[in-house]
Amino acid sequence: MARAIWRKILEASKEEALLAVKLYNEPVFSRSLEGFVVHMHLAWLYLLQAQLVKERVEFRYPDPKHKGRYLKVDGEYQTWDLAKTAKHKWSTQNPVRANLEFFIKLRNRIEHRHTGRDEALAAAIGGQSHALLLNYEKELTAYFGESHSMANMLRFPVFIGTFTEAAEEVLVKLQNDLSPDLRNFLAEYDASIDSAIRDDSRYRLKLRVFLEAAPNAGEMALQFTRYDDLSDDQKKSMDELKKSGRVLVREQMRPVQNKGLMRPTQAMNRIAEGIPYKFNSYDFKLSWKNNNIRPLGGSPHPERTREEFCVYNDTHNDYLYTEAFVKYMIRKCSTKEGFLEVVGRQAKAKKHIGQGKTPTSTR
Q1: 316 inside domain
Q2: Whether pLDDT at 3 is above 70
């Protein structure tokens, strides 16, 4: 029964996503962005609910007056909204969650305060909109499998965008015409999130397009190239073109600066000092393994970390941990339930002073 339920929810999610994109790409629909935001909100909600059903996680609110029962509103069970579901799914410092929360707030503003046509706002948040859809596709296929991909149903739209100078000027003018309240909202939200999230393609996608001669028969008209796959000369040329705003897709670069970062021992000791339970090198290792903070040793792509928590140091071939990771671990591991969730084993209370020592080294 649970299998049938999550499959129905998943299909409803995909239908909402398809409708959202259809509305977004409809040139004569004056409220296309509003339609896109509302239906992508539902698509994400149903996608995450399908996961919760599949994992048998209870997301109905219990009825405080009747033990064993759940709250109902107009005959329907009251369940987690998208904001609460996203908090359950991702940590605070996560670009996907930040992107979702941006659109949750924008949806409330559109529904209750914003009136008028959407062109200016659509031009201003095009990067976030594309990221919202691509994040959805990635989450959909990563969790439920490649067979659920919508790549064969959603194609790159035909548009002029910034392919001509006149079109580019129109888009710039549109952004300048954005109403003061929405301009303030965009600025304030960007200022409220960490710069690493703000620059992450999962929060705001930045596409740079390079036009070339028509492809030969049988070739894809649209091709994507990773920046890291280019030769040194090609990278130099693309970096020069970047200054003018017209290049190709460039993968988000991982931060490698050491400022504000901690070695494993430092991070572990900070966590151990900040929680009421024993926390040693083995617990530290379990934490990054169980939460996919960094790749396992020997990975061909050591740089693919959860960069809000950990970055790869190419010079020393090791990993450094962020203040956000330490704070996250202290917050989670301050309770027995949270400790079990992130470490994967039961918490043990610290011994009294003189009966034991705090660990001081790890790898």
Answers
A1: yes
A2: no
